[in-house]
Write a structure and sequence with these properties.
- Three copies of one chain form a homotrimer.
- Chain A is built from three helices and seven strands; from the N terminus they run βαββββαββα.
- By secondary structure, chain A is an alpha/beta fold.
- In chain A, helix 1 packs antiparallel against helix 2 (about 80-95).
- The relative contact order of chain A is 0.19.
- Chains in contact: A-B, A-C, B-C.
- The interface of A and C includes residues 20, 28, 37 and 41 of A.
- Strand 3 (about 50-55) of chain B pairs antiparallel with strand 2 of chain C.
Chain lengths: ~150, ~150, ~150
């Protein structure tokens, strides 16, 4: 958690520097609220010119990037303001990488139950717990007696 | 919204015409209820002969297409009849492209919260709103004062 | 249902035997509770060296495999013990294929509504029903009068 899938058109996000910059800005969304950096997995999935169809047609005006985001560690309360704040935070992280490059883009977030999530066979420590701070500090899944 | 992922076996859906016909029939599911065509994103993801496993084996009898569908703009009420109607509508759209070609296929729909969804940095207008009609007419994300 | 996406790094899970062993162990999770083997679809999606980013960096220490799991046919009750049991069962199935090979790995399960799921145009029979037993026995979607 979180998992990001970045469906991008061939010919864009080709260089390592662009991917690094994007994934670091994405990562900061989550480290800013105290999560370990290694939780943030971003998979780039290239779409060939015939692979992405929009409204039954191939997009020819601007490159289009479609972000699919899974939130697992922290789910939001059913609250318009919290939802809006999260969506704006994602917008802010993405802006230099899409809007400022003249791309079209879209994202949506899916939330799933953290009880059905494990890393290296471990139940990730509770959000905000002391054990989570250990995972942040070492930036890896450190074995611990579960149930803490 | 919606986002469709089409996991298809190598050697099928190769030509542009087949993809266009399928994605236009998919798009119609949503434009029929008043959504803008550009909301409908369909990504074709090719699976090589070793990439798709079914029940722990490789499928050899018929080609198999697996559709993964995300619904965001409009979520259904918790109602068997509405669910059934939607599933039938999808079946109807897919039939010429899978059943009639002798394929096996499967789909499922996941629904996510529209408050965690943005297009080009904009909150998409409410379903059925006047602003949504502008997006339909121009078939793009037209900036507007949010909160309308 | 279920659908597994296996995001794996190039150079791993290359041979058919490794994939067969993994997908058979995954399938057993579900056949053990009575589901038909053919419900279990596992898609392998290869990630090139520049495609998977973790915490804004490229992983260089160990190979990392990210499993994304959709559960549709059977959703769990909102119960910590049931959730934990399922997550442990998945761990157990994965262990020989990831932990024992020295990989890092992560999985999460998303649950979706079975009313928005069809196979070959058919509503899959209710969990535990007589008709489901027919699907198990023949290991395919056998047409039947729906509503049974």
């Amino acid at each position: 958690m979180p998992l990001w899938l970045v469906f991008y058109p061939e010919g864009h996000f080709q260089d390592t520097a662009a991917r690094k910059a994007l994934t670091q800005d994405i990562t900061k969304i989550y480290t800013d609220i105290g999560l370990p950096p290694f939780y943030v997995v971003v998979n780039f999935i290239q779409m060939g010119p015939q692979d992405m169809w929009i409204g039954g047609a191939q997009k020819t005006d601007k490159p289009f990037v479609r972000f699919v985001i899974e939130h697992i560690a922290v789910n939001l309360p059913d609250d318009d303001i919290a939802m809006d704040r999260t969506a704006r935070r994602i917008d802010q992280a993405l802006k230099p990488h899409v809007a400022d490059k003249g791309y079209d883009w879209e994202f949506h977030v899916d939330e799933t139950d953290r009880r059905l999530w494990k890393v290296n066979g471990l139940v990730p420590p509770k959000f905000g717990s002391e054990q989570e701070k250990v995972w942040v500090k070492e930036n890896r899944a450190v074995p611990y007696p579960e149930g803490l």
